[in-house]
DNA sequence: TCCCCTGGCACATTTGAATCGC
DNA sequence: AGCGATTCAAATGTGCCAGGGG
């Protein structure tokens, strides 16, 4: 059923006016997963009709190219940007209504992959999901007019494999498959989440799915990155006989580019000065193994029978899927926030905002604020969705909604595919951006400049800072500083947790990420929390080993 | 031994301060 | 003094590579 639902939505989206690039809104009714949240839409207020919002993925063709080859995204300890960067064109918003745009990256499945025989294969069960984090667009909240004015870029979003990352980057496991999701949340009158009828919609572009790696496995991807990423220009071969190009073209004997020569010479001189036996140029064994052969198999990307060899082993719906619904008064709301103290804290700083979402699709969806003072100039503000430790159930909803703490509470990320086999096409994304204090936006106000500013103060969301477009981070975060988070479509509470680093002080994690509690939470496997994502196959070929 | 990760490297782009001219 | 254009250096973002660890 779910599959059918998801597919239907997907198909509809694909055939929409956007030529398959635009997304359509999935009515509340179409999300049977909201068992605890009445599916009857409360769209009595026209201005909250978020269903009309359409999102078009920018550079979709480029994304498709990567997707067809099996997109890989480098993740590093320091954090690595995504390329292609996630940019969208949004339409259909109420020009005067304020929205918050954010992205989260959820596991696409529960597999760990390995690149073997020039294709991705399942290598086992996925490792426990990293603490989910959300990246809130620095302009958030902003009016619909603002979002629709130009492309909305999430290019500064960074991915990391550092489980204790203090910068708020999205934490991922290497060799795992992920699916970015865009969430558009309607901000309340206080520019925060949490109004009684907070509505949001989620947009998923299947072609943005990727496998996280610490180094590129598929040379097709490497080549695409080099060819399209300006920062990788230095690796572009000046002559068409470039080694990588030649390899991609299926040439038997690749030509070494000047860059390759330089790199190897340098390496040879600096590290292997005494290793005269090591070939430095064309005769270098590694050259052959790396560019001419793949796992002992001759590379031939032009081989018509090979096109899918590098693809993800899963069939996916080429279209995107997204859900949209409106929270009702008696259901959990999107609540944002940091406690008042946080709002009053000193200025924060970065235009980048990260929120941490639920740690694992295996675990409940709780969101704990995860704030930190960035060590670097970006000074990102992070919020994390932590599982609840309170063990409180649905009855915590009131507590949450009544909380005056301005913390971001989001539903945890949900996995795709397998875990949703029994689920419903419901996107268990819930967030409470509360601003009970009645202060201005918890999320930074749109800033004229996207440039990050060095900040010595803790990043704390306060009205002043927000107005300046500067994120603010709670000064002294603690598990009790933020309100319990709500998860999924059910009432769940949790303790907030965040990273906080005072100026000049070392990074001080307030919570052990490795010890996320899972008890008292609802497994995503539960039908109510499962949703089907019509991940399609655009040529991508996944192979189960 | 293999696989994966890390840190350093060079190169290109981006950013912002400093400088100059009007 | 103010403004805009230009220049320059630092910061940042890339992929590549060798080496290390499990």
UniProtKB/TrEMBL annotation:
Keywords (A to Z) from UniProt: DNA-binding, Nucleus, Transcription, Transcription regulation
GO cellular component: chromatin; cytoplasm; nucleus
Biased amino acid composition, Polar residues: 32-48
GO biological process: angiogenesis; cell fate specification; embryonic pelvic fin morphogenesis; positive regulation of DNA-templated transcription
InterPro entries in the record: p53-like_TF_DNA-bd_sf (IPR008967), T-box_DNA-bd (IPR046360), T-box_sf (IPR036960), TF_T-box (IPR001699), TF_T-box_CS (IPR018186)
Matches recorded under PROSITE patterns: TBOX_1 (PS01283), TBOX_2 (PS01264), TBOX_3 (PS50252)
Molecular-function annotations in GO: DNA-binding transcription factor activity, RNA polymerase II-specific; RNA polymerase II cis-regulatory region sequence-specific DNA binding
Localization annotation: Cytoplasm; Nucleus
Protein name as annotated: T-box transcription factor 4
Organism: Labrus bergylta
Lineage: Eukaryota, Metazoa, Chordata, Craniata, Vertebrata
């Amino acid at each position: 059923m779910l599959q059918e639902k998801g597919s239907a939505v997907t198909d509809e989206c694909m055939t929409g006016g956007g030529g398959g690039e635009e997304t359509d809104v999935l009515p509340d009714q179409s999300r049977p997963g909201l068992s605890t949240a009445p599916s009857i839409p409360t769209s009595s207020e026209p201005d909250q009709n978020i269903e009309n919002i359409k999102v078009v993925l920018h550079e979709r063709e480029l994304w498709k190219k990567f997707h067809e080859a099996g997109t890989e995204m480098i993740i590093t300890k320091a954090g690595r940007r995504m390329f292609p960067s996630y940019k969208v064109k949004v339409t259909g918003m109420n020009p005067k209504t304020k929205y918050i745009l954010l992205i989260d990256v959820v596991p696409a499945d529960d597999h760990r992959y390995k690149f073997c025989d020039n294709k991705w294969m399942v290598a086992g069960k996925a490792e426990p999901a990293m603490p989910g984090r959300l990246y809130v667009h620095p302009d958030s909240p902003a009016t619909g007019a603002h979002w629709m004015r130009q492309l909305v870029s999430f290019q500064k979003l960074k991915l990391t494999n550092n489980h204790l990352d203090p910068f708020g980057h999205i934490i991922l496991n290497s060799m795992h498959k992920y699916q970015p999701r865009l969430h558009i949340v309607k901000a309340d009158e206080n520019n925060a989440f949490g109004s009684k009828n907070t509505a949001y919609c989620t947009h998923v572009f299947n072609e943005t799915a990727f496998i996280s790696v610490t180094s590129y496995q598929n040379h097709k991807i490497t080549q695409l990155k080099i060819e399209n990423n300006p920062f990788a220009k230095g690796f572009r071969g000046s002559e068409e006989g470039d080694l990588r190009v030649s390899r991609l073209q299926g040439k038997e004997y690749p030509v070494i580019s000047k860059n390759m020569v330089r790199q190897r010479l340098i390496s040879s001189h600096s590290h292997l000065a005494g290793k005269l036996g090591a070939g430095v140029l064309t005769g270098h064994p590694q050259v052959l193994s790396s560019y001419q052969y793949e796992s002992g198999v001759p590379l031939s990307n032009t081989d018509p029978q090979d096109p899918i060899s590098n693809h993800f082993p899963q069939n996916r719906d080429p279209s995107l899927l997204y859900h949209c619904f409106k929270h009702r008064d008696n259901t959990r709301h999107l609540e944002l926030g940091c406690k008042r103290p946080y709002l009053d804290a000193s200025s924060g700083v970065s235009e980048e905002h990260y929120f941490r979402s639920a740690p694992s699709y295996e675990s409940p969806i709780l969101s704990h604020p995860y704030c930190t003072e960035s060590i670097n100039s970006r000074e990102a503000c992070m919020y994390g969705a932590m599982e609840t430790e309170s063990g409180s159930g649905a009855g915590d909803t009131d507590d949450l909604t009544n909380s005056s703490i301005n913390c971001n509470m989001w539903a945890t990320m949900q996995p795709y595919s397998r875990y949703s086999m029994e689920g419903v096409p419901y996107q268990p994304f819930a967030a409470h951006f509360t601003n009970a204090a009645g202060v201005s936006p918890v999320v930074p106000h749109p800033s004229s400049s996207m440039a990050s500013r060095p900040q010595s103060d803790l990043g704390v969301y306060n009205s002043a800072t927000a107005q300046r477009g500067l994120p603010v981070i709670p000064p002294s975060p603690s598990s009790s500083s933020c309100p319990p988070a709500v998860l999924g479509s059910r009432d769940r509470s949790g303790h907030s947790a965040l990273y906080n680093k005072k100026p000049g002080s070392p990074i001080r994690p307030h919570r052990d990420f490795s010890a996320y509690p899972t008890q008292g939470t609802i497994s995503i496997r539960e039908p109510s929390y499962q949703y089907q994502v019509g991940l399609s196959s655009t040529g991508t070929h996944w192979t189960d080993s």
